[in-house]
Design brief:
The complex is a heterodimer of chains A (132) and B (285). Chain A is an alpha+beta fold and 132 residues long. Chain A has one domain: 2-Layer Sandwich (Heat Shock Protein 90), CATH 3.30.565. Chain A contains four helices and five strands. Chain A has a five-stranded antiparallel β-sheet with strand order 1-2-3-5-4, covered by helices on one side. The longest helix of chain A is centred in the N-terminal third of the chain and has 20 residues. Chain A is globular and about 40 Å long. Chain B folds into two domains: 149 residues, Globin-like, CATH 1.10.490; 112 residues, Transcription Regulator spoIIAA (2-Layer Sandwich), CATH 3.30.750.24. Helices cover 60% and strands 9% of the residues of chain B. The longest helix of chain B has 38 residues. The radius of gyration of chain B is 23 Å and the shape is elongated. Chain B starts with 7 loop residues before the first helix and ends in a 10-residue tail after the last helix. The chains are: A alpha+beta (132), B alpha/beta (285). The interface between A and B is medium-sized, with 26 and 24 residues. Bound molecules: adenosine-5'-diphosphate and magnesium ion. Magnesium ion binds next to helix 2 of chain A. The site of adenosine-5'-diphosphate has 22 residues of chain A, from helix 2 and helix 4.
């Protein structure tokens, strides 16, 4: 099995393709239906942010193993404007673009590990992992 | 006993009105009252009875795969597929055929009379036949469900969804596919127009065929529900599978103000209740 794979994300069609890809990886790694649904939904949120706010970017999918567990890590990266206030962006209900403002917080709650790194003017990287 | 000696063909021919009446009664007793109107159930049963009666005249009671049974198989296929789509359970679907047993056995008993051995043979023949037909319906039902599930897993880029009128005041919008494209807006607007045109009081939005419900999908749904409400129609969202329900909660989406149901059939039942329509068993039966 491929251990990692990288895909560009530029449009809303790419968001659909990312979901399909994440679903296929989660199935291959033996994730339950609930866990598949969780990581696919989180991926959908982050991929759409990459398009809407990051001006496009990439996603990297990785199969992980820590000896006991199997995991799927997704890393979304863009070279967009970045996020000024991380805490505010993560706050439920906050949106700068007319959304529900639940994407970042929701993705965090749907994942086991969550990391958000952003520098204004340089871009944003969000990494999530779901363990089986 | 040889197959051609069975009394079944004659019994179906001679007692058709009686058997039909009892069969409908049996079904009404086992079917959830909201599942189907009595008149359409009667019509469906009558049509099937005619096909069955004709097929049985061929004498081929042991093999329902033959050409004499084509009409019967086709009708059962349609019925199973539509029941699968409308959220009937497999047993509710098979019950259509199985509930013919009692009325048929009653007539066989009257006809064959005191000859216990002959009666046993007749009952056995009829049981085998009806069980085969019931098995056929569940197999078709299963295939229908599998097709539905694989459709859910393969996210489709487009959704093709006409608004359908289920009842006088009840509209349904079965959504199929992804809701990322600009077309989603068009689909939702179509529903709102149809509400105006028909004066519908209730609109059911079924999301069984939507593979992923993220915050964008939720926002589309919430906006549509709010707009419909302004036009005097209540929305029910159906087809929320357990894994989707869990995910929505984690996302933090507030659906508390929206009526949600697991299946389209459940939503339809609620809709009929709310609009005061009375179908199913007449009171006092
Ligand atoms: N990749 C990104 N680049 C820049 N800003 C972002 C990015 N992702 C999220 N944000 C900011 O965080 C906010 C909250 O994001 P989110 O929780 O997904 O809600 P929504 O997408 O509904 O606005 C966004 O409105 C945006 O201001
Ligand atoms: Mg978002």
């Amino acid at each position: 099995m491929t251990e990692h794979e990288t895909r560009p994300i530029r449009s809303s069609e790419d968001v659909v393709i990312v979901r399909q890809l994440v679903r296929a990886w989660a199935i291959r790694l033996g994730f339950s239906l609930v866990d598949q649904t969780k990581i696919v939904t989180a991926a959908s949120e982050l991929a759409r942010n990459t398009v809407d706010y990051g001006g496009g970017g990439i996603v990297r999918l990785e199969a992980l193993s820590d000896g006991r567990r199997i995991g799927l890590r997704l890393t979304f990266e863009d070279k967009g404007p970045g996020i000024e206030d991380l805490a505010l962006a993560l706050k439920d209900g906050y949106t700068s673009g007319g959304g529900l403002g639940l994407g970042l917080g929701g993705a965090k709650r749907l994942s086991n590990d969550f990391e958000l790194v952003s520098k204004p003017g340089e871009g944003t990287r969000v990494s999530i992992t779901r363990w089986r | 006993m040889t197959r051609s000696a069975s009394r079944l063909p004659d019994i179906l021919k001679q007692n058709d009105a009686d058997i039909l009446r009892d069969w409908v009664k049996e079904q009404l007793a086992t079917l959830r009252p909201e599942a189907m109107s009595e008149s359409s159930l009667r019509e469906q049963t009558q049509r099937f009875f005619g096909l069955l009666r004709d097929a049985v005249q061929s004498g081929e009671l042991g093999d329902i795969t033959g050409p004499a049974w084509t009409g019967v198989r086709e009708m059962l296929t349609d019925l199973s597929q539509s029941r699968a789509t409308f959220g009937y359970t497999p047993s509710e679907t098979a019950m259509f055929v199985l509930s013919l047993k009692q009325p048929l056995f009653t007539r066989l008993r009257q006809d064959v009379g005191r000859d216990a051995e002959a009666l046993a043979d007749e009952v056995w023949t009829a049981t085998l036949l009806l069980d085969k037909l019931a098995l056929f319906t569940t197999e078709v039902y299963q295939k229908g469900r599998e097709a539905l599930i694989s459709r859910q897993q393969h996210e489709m880029l487009e959704l093709s969804t006409p608004v359908v009128q289920l009842w006088d005041n009840v509209l349904a919008l079965p959504l199929i596919g992804t809701l990322d494209s600009a077309r989603t807006q068009v689909v939702m607007e179509n529903l709102l127009h149809k509400i105006v045109d028909t004066g519908a009081a209730i609109a059911i939005i079924d999301i069984t065929g939507v593979p992923t419900v993220d915050t964008l999908v939720a926002q589309h749904l919430l906006k549509t529900v709010a707009a419909a409400r302004l036009m005097g129609a209540d929305c029910i969202i159906s087809g929320i599978r357990p894994q989707i329900a869990q995910t929505i909660v984690h996302l933090g989406v507030e659906l508390a103000s929206v009526v949600t149901k697991a299946t389209l059939a459940d939503a339809f039942a609620i809709a009929l209740q709310k609009t005061g329509a009375t179908i199913g068993k007449p009171a006092g039966r």
